[in-house]
User: What shape does this take?
Amino acid sequence: MPPTGPVPARRPVGTVTRGTTHPNRLRRMDRWIARTHGPALRRCDGPPLAVDLGYGAAPWTAVELLLRLRRVRGDAEVAGLEIEPERVAVAKPYERPGLTFRHGGFEVPLPRAPLLIRAANVLRQYAEDEVPAAWERLCGRLAPGGLLVEGTCDEIGRRHVWVALGPEGPRTVTFAARLASLEQPSDLAERLPKALIHRNVPGEPVHAFLRDFDRAWATAAPYAPYGARQRWVRAVAALAARWPVADGPRRWRYGEVTVPWAALAPAGRPARG
Assistant: This one.
């Protein structure tokens, strides 16, 4: 059972991140969370708690997460956690009912277990072999039915890739992009989360996936005059003939595509880098 009582004070677990943050940087991830995890948020007995882990030098992403989750569940609460005390002090003036900022890391030192932990641009600086332990630790802090979403995006949120995990481990990988700025799907490779970024080499599933996605994108070039969205939708439809795409055209139109983790999981060889 996830812990629900007070967590004793201790040194936070983790390493200070660069802290780079911008308003609306995580909007694509938040939109996906609200759609995918919305039913669990609505079913929650009492106000559901979400964690913005490693929100950075400014509190914008935590503030925005609260606003977006409250469109799904009006009494949702968000706790921003930062390992750097000065960042917590900067964020404190932005607290409001349902939004708090605390000093903490992967131990998630909260009095009750969260239904959601969002860790964006946190694990990118870690070694690949440190990721499974971090995932396990964070998933162990989730409430029953909880979700961990961990991934990486560029500075203004145009390109984003994330992994969704439950207590049993990783479930899905989602690729999301602002299509007007995308030359080809493999441009998203630079935003692969740490568990996959060193695996984008021949012989690895994620490399094959991005290769096939680029081929489908090229084949869909005749739809480009109708807009990047139409081209993306056609490309994903072609990709779905070879890969187990987990969503449908309604989500593709947002510049998203989700596949099961098992389809892209590392092949097992030691990674480079």
The beta strands are 49-53, 77-82, 99-103, 116-120, 147-153, 159-166, 169-177, 256-260. The two ends are 36 Å apart (CA to CA).
